[in-house]
Amino acid sequence: MRDSPEQVYALADEIRQRCLGQLDSLLSPGTHVWAAAAADELIVHFVNAPDLGSKTFLEKLQTQLADVSPQAIRLMAELAVIYELTPVNVGVPAKRRMVEGILAFAGTTGPLPDRVLEAFTGGVANPGTWYMTRPDVQLTFLIRCVVALTALTDDERTAVTSDPWMFRDLLGSVPLNSGYNQRAALLHLMFPDTFESIVASLDKGRILDFYAERLAARSGDDDRDMLLLRDALADGQGEPIHFYRPPWDGWRTTKTTTRGWLVRGAKVHGVDLIPQWLDDGYCSVAFPDVPSIPAGTSHAKIAEVVAAALPDVSTQERRSKTGTLDRFLNRIKVGHVVVTVHGADVFAGRIAGAAEWGESSDALSNRRRPVTWLNAGRPIARADLSAGAQGKLSGQNVVSDLGLYADEILALATVEEAAGAGQVEEPTSALTAPVALELPDPTKAFADGLFLPLDWLREVIDLLREKGQVVLYGPPGTGKTFIAQALATFLTETAGGEQRLVQFHPSYAYEDFFEGFRPRPGETQGSLVFDLVPGPLRRMAALADADPTRPYVLVIDELNRANLAKVFGELYFLLEYRNRAVGLQYSPDEDFSLPRNLLVIGTMNTADRSIALVDQAMRRRFDFVPLFPGQAPLKAMLRDWLAANAIPATAADLLDALNSMLGDPESAVGPSYFMSERSRTSAGLQRIWRTAIIPLLEERFAGNGVDVHATYALASLLSQLKGGTGGSTPASSASVGPVLEEGKALSSSDARIPAADQI
After folding, report:
1. Which of 116, 467, 481, 703 makes the best surface tag, with the fewest CB within 10 Å?
2. For the whole prediction, is pTM greater than 0.70?
3. How far apart are alpha carbons 138 and 178 in whole angstroms?
4. Per-residue pLDDT averaged across 477-486, rounded?
5. Are residues 121 and 227 in the same domain?
């Protein structure tokens, strides 16, 4: 279970014994920081006085703690240490800023102890968006833990902090208030040999379901069952078990069994129906001009009824209403989760029966589904949801699928229901935003295989983590497409998932890329029908949505050859706002969002169209990574490749000389033309020059009156290299490799001859 660096667990163990057990200070040993009075101050000024403004967390915290004692500030700083021990995806500088920033409120300056900084180099889990964006919620839970600990006698506290199950019982008595991830993380940190490093409690249930056959029986206690499962799986294994890494992560490919739907009722023809829904236990859709349609009616029949009732509305609007009715009457099943939004409040329940028809005075709620509302008296704050869940609730359709976020909202609603009943110590389940995508770091072997710097590859993968889409741009022959595909292969082979390449061209359109209608023969001879067919982006999005923990990579080659606004359409918006949903051009009754684990790597040829012509909307949505000959990361690529393959450096010298003559980085020639066995012999170099380089230059100088064959003749460049003359000769000419006789390969003795003698 100890899957993280030992310094993390060493500090966590010190916190358990010193702070939780003895109420002594972590950062100033011998100081009575962990005191009931200090915790009470934090309850009054922080927990009970939330700041919902737009400033940073530290800025708001400084205002909240302006009137508390230095002792309370130091306690908050030490609780922040616990908070920062969890994430593996946060660097030392950010963790340090949090803790040292809090200490500064009390006038304490200077670096943190080395043992703390060493522990900050690691972590125990990727706790997800909720944990990282709501430190106030996690710290609130930790403050309440201090209140519970300081209420115990010394003997009771010693016992509780020495026994993992007693400790869990104590945390179960602490009001949760959405601190689910922090509680799970704290259990693992304090007792790593008993509790898993899994901060999303729903994941434990999914793991146990997946490996059910390895357990004789389930006790109903996920923590105890996970302990038994680990013992069962570890039998005969020579390596640690990590449930988020192959081969133990098969459970992550299984889809959630929770199906959820958003049904809007706050503004139905200007009327707010939600209070009535909550009081009477139902939800509804209106369409007062459409007559009763029984549940089970086919989509085609619903379309006929809608067309007959609404002959004057557009085809697109009829299609939208038909889809809404089909979802409400047929696709929503008994037991599914139903969610509705009322201003800043979110309510969730379970569908309790089939669709019913009942006359209502305003004809706005005739079509109903009975609902058992879970949190009618205790709504979820919309702001407490993950960014992805909030995005799902922002769609425009009356009825829309919540996808993977149904679990998250159901968990919160269930906890709110338990809180209302005074049972917060053991909620039915814990909040889990969908598991965050974890992209692997590039390896040295991967970098060496590409002849690229490891740091450059790290940066590109970091850009994909941050934005989700990058463009590799540069002149021909710089390996843009090869590198893009290699990155896609590395990510998907290491972490799972899939990749696909598409190539843009001037006639490429939205209907090719995302979805469009395609004809096929009809049932009667000579007739045609049109089917809505998904394109590569839509298909990849569906795969990614069903498997959110693995990367799905779409490589778009020659990105700038198409009319990008025409190809992307409304998807432009989603590239920038992955957590939002939009209606679609050909599927207006569906709210669509781009999964965060769908990554896009584009390539752009600057010789074909300058990057300067790309519009600002495109620039804002992609990170652009240059690939130019003679500049990092390509500067040494060809020479390194030639050396690794025991080929003379002549080709690299020729390329340097040629690009120096060309003088334009966007029109420079890339190294990939020479990265072949042809570069080993003079005949091979001549063939490369005749069949690849000269045609490229002819296109480059077409209409400019340049005699390409004379100006850029291979013999001329070789002569310049041999004599070391000419302003165009590169600085590296003093170490030019051998120019071979026709068909002759370089021998090991030739390789030791000084360059000047070899030419």
Report:
1. 703
2. no
3. 8
4. 94
5. no
